[in-house]
Amino acid sequence: MPIGNARPSVRPVHAGRTDGATAASFRRPGAGPRRRASRGVRSERLAPYYLVAPAVLIIVVLRLYPLLLGVNFSFTGDGERNGTAVGLDNYREIFGDPLFQTALGNVGLLVLLLPVAVAIPGLLATFIYLKVPGHRLYRSVYFFPAVLSPVIVGAIFNLLLAFDGPLNALLVSAGVGPVDWLGDPDITMLVVVGVHIWATFGMSLVVFLTGFATLDAALLDAARVDGASLAQTIRHVIVPGLTRTIQFVFVTTMIGMLTSMFGLLFVMTSGGPEGSTYLPEYYVWIQQGQMNRPALASAASTVLFVIMLVVGLLQIKLLRRAGRED
């Protein structure tokens, strides 16, 4: 019972509470949703890294780590010096080997023939995209050699290009005379590269056709309305529109020519005549498989990797510069 005019004291509801309720009641409005939104944004930023992590792990374990082991192995010895560090002795030996010098010279030939190997499927894909008569049949026919084994392709062309084979018989009937396609050191490498291009351009053709699917058809229609010729359309519309596709085909074709011709070389020439068809890939196999010199083979393999890396980067740089100029 209050005495006189005294009024009962009123305490705040949260006075003296230490269980966190007071702090919760005075928390800024919207702090919780903002924190959850921040966590959501952070998760979205990290999501791509989570997705590519398994692929990166596979590449590191199955590609980069063995590559580093091979490079390290190239600085060790063979035979009596097995496992002993020899510095650059293996590299000095391979660069002084005439067969490896021939292999490097053939790499230069491949680089010179690379534009031809890319232009053939590019032009054929252009004709198919423009729907020349029979384009569906051509697509199947052009791709068919890509499914054949290099051993089968080599055996077929061994029969066709033999000195007494059907191609020379046709030349003799035309009064030209026979050509030793697989026995003349001056032309044999060109013949093998030509067979490789025939056998593999079907895959590049498919890549080009995929690139055409991203090309703006309105540009082709505008070029046709303006009266542009086929050559002008290819140069000013198709090539700029397929720059990235062309870069990809250039790099993959060069890698294929440096690392996927072993089957043809083994079946058609076995590195001959006179070692004229050696490539670094074939040289690596000879040193490892026949000479039992794995450290020397590792050195040659490292040189091949460096060549592919340098040539690929130069190709991309030149193609990007050409695309900017266009």
UniProtKB/TrEMBL annotation:
Belongs to the binding-protein-dependent transport system permease family. PROSITE patterns: ABC_TM1. Pfam families: BPD_transp_1 (PF00528). It is a multi-pass membrane protein. The keyword Transport applies. PANTHER family: ABC TRANSPORTER PERMEASE PROTEIN, DIACETYLCHITOBIOSE UPTAKE SYSTEM PERMEASE PROTEIN NGCF. The keyword Glycosyltransferase does not apply. This is Multiple sugar transport system permease protein. InterPro entries: ABC_transporter_permease, MetI-like, MetI-like_sf. Residues 99-315 form the ABC transmembrane type-1 domain. It is found in: Cell membrane. CDD domains: TM_PBP2 (cd06261). SUPFAM superfamilies: MalF N-terminal region-like (SSF160964), MetI-like (SSF161098). The chain crosses the membrane at residues 46-65, 107-130, 142-163, 187-215, 248-268, 295-314. It comes from the Bacteria. Gene3D superfamilies: MetI-like. Residues 1-39 are annotated as: Disordered. Keywords: Cell membrane, Membrane, Sugar transport, Transmembrane, Transmembrane helix, Transport. GO terms for cellular component: plasma membrane. Residues 23-32 have a biased composition (Low complexity).
